[in-house]
Design a protein that fits this description.
126 residues, mainly alpha
């Protein structure tokens, strides 16, 4: 029987990270200087890539790798969708489908890298 504590640790970090995103999304504006066009999409992609990494670490011991990859991207995409919907109710913020797409793409890219780097023997367990 494996030790569940490492998974719980990563699940707690995932919960705290999702809470941070919710808190930041609830602010009317964020003090991020404009450096280049589409930087907000890069920030969204990186943020949800990090979320995907935390989800992967939290649930890796419990799901077969292919299922884990699918569930990771779905979780992050749905959280991104709910985050954009949440922002539609915040004065000074707006929901943006392209932010959601950047969230989903960031989560997908990191999940794809994690899946590709997974040892081949683990993929056979699906």
């Amino acid at each position: 029987m494996s030790n569940p504590l490492p998974g719980l640790f990563w699940a707690l970090l995932l919960f705290l990270y999702c809470s941070l995103i919710f808190f930041l999304s609830h602010q009317p504006a964020l003090p991020v200087p404009h450096v280049f066009d589409l930087q907000d999409k890069l920030i969204h992609g990186a943020a949800y890539g990090l979320m995907a990494g935390l989800f992967w670490r939290a649930f890796h011991p419990h799901l077969a790798v292919t299922k884990l990859a699918i569930v990771t991207v779905l979780f992050c995409s749905l959280y991104g969708f709910s985050d954009e919907w949440h922002q539609s109710f915040i004065e000074g913020r707006q929901a943006d489908v392209f932010d959601w797409l950047a969230d989903t793409l960031g989560a997908f890219l990191l999940t794809w890298m994690l899946y590709k780097w997974e040892p081949v023997r683990m993929k056979g367990d699906d």
